[in-house]
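Dear support,

Our group has been running a series of protein-ligand predictions, and this particular one with adenosine-5'-diphosphate is the one our PI (initials K.S.) wants archived with full inputs and outputs. We had some confusion internally about which version of the output was final, so please treat the block below as the authoritative record. The input we submitted was:
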Amino acid sequence: MASEFDLIARYFTRSAPAGLLGVGDDCALFPVPPGEQVATSTDLLLEGRHFFPDVDPKALGHKALAVNLSDLAAMGARPIGCVLGLALPRLDEPWLAAFADGFHALAAVHGCPLIGGDTTRSAHDLAISVTVFGAVPAGAALRRDGARADDDIWVSGELGAADVAYRLLDGQYPADAARLAATRGALEWPEPQVALGLALRGTAHAAIDISDGLLQDLGHILAASRVGAVLREDRMPVAAALAGMPADPVRRAVLGGGDVYQLCFTAPAARRDAVLAAAQAVGARVTRVGRIVAQPGLAVLDADGQALAQLPAGFDHFPAA
Ligand code: ADP
Ligand code: MG
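Confirmed final output from the archive:
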C-alpha cells in the first residue's frame, strides 16, 4: 500500500528548474525578477460541481491547471510555478497517474512547474485546489478596472462550445453523439491564452478570462471600470461546432456560457492594428464584438440593431433567488 509520501514522490515530484526549490521541503522557493510583481490566483474544483465524477482524469489534470493559467493570462502575467492541493476519497493509482500526466504536460507547455502542494484523504468527494504564481512588470498587469469609453471590446477564440458540451453531458439536451464529439474538447481541454495575455500588455486597457459567461465576465470589467458596453450579437465568434443549432441555445451558449477560458479585453480603437498584430504573433484569433460606452449598463444589439430585451444569465454559485 502506497503511503502519502510514495504518492507525492511518484506522481507529483519532478525536478524543478534551476533556481527554484520544488517539492520536498516545507516551502517552495522561487526568485522574483527585480521590478516585477508576483501575480497569484487559486481555483478550487469540486467533484459534481466543477467536473463530472467520471471525467477522463488526464483531462481533469489538464483543466485543473488550465483554469488557473487562464487567470495569469488575463493579467498578462508570465507563469512561474504552481502548487496543488488534493483531497482524495480513495487511492486509485491509475487515476492519479493519468491526472498527473495531464497536469504536468500542460505545466511543461507553459513553463509552470509544480513546486509544492498538499495531499490528504477526503471523507467524501474529490477536491482539487491549484494555486499559480506568475510575474509581471510592476504596473503593467492587465486589470479589470482599465476600460475607457470608446474602447473596442474583443474576445479571443470561439464562444459557445463548452456550454453545449456541458448541457449534453448533463442531460439537459437530448443525446447527440456528433455534437458532443465536436464540442467536448472545448469543455475538457481548454487552452489558456497565456501567450495572448503577454502579447496584449501595453495595448489592452483591461482584460478578464471568460469563466462564467461573456456577459457576466464583461460585467466585472464594466463595474470595475465604471463604464458600460454595447455588444453586437452578429459579430460574435460562434463556435463552428454549434452550426445548425436553434438560435436560443446558441445565444445562451455564446453570451452566457461559461468554461470558455478565452480572454475578453478592451483596447483603444486607435490600437486595432496593434491588437491584430499581437494576436497574429501568437497564433490567436481575436474578434471585435462591441464598444465601451461612458453610460453604465450593458446592451446587446441583434443583427437588426435592436437591443435584446432579455439577456442570458451567467454562472453563479450562490444565485440570489
Ligand atoms: P508538510 O507536512 O510540511 O505540509 P507534506 O508532507 O504535506 O509537508 O508534503 C511534503 C512535500 O510534498 C512538500 O514539499 C509539499 O509541498 C509536497 N507535496 C505534497 N502534496 C503535493 C501535491 N499534491 N503536489 C505537489 N507537491 C506536493
Ligand atoms: Mg502537508
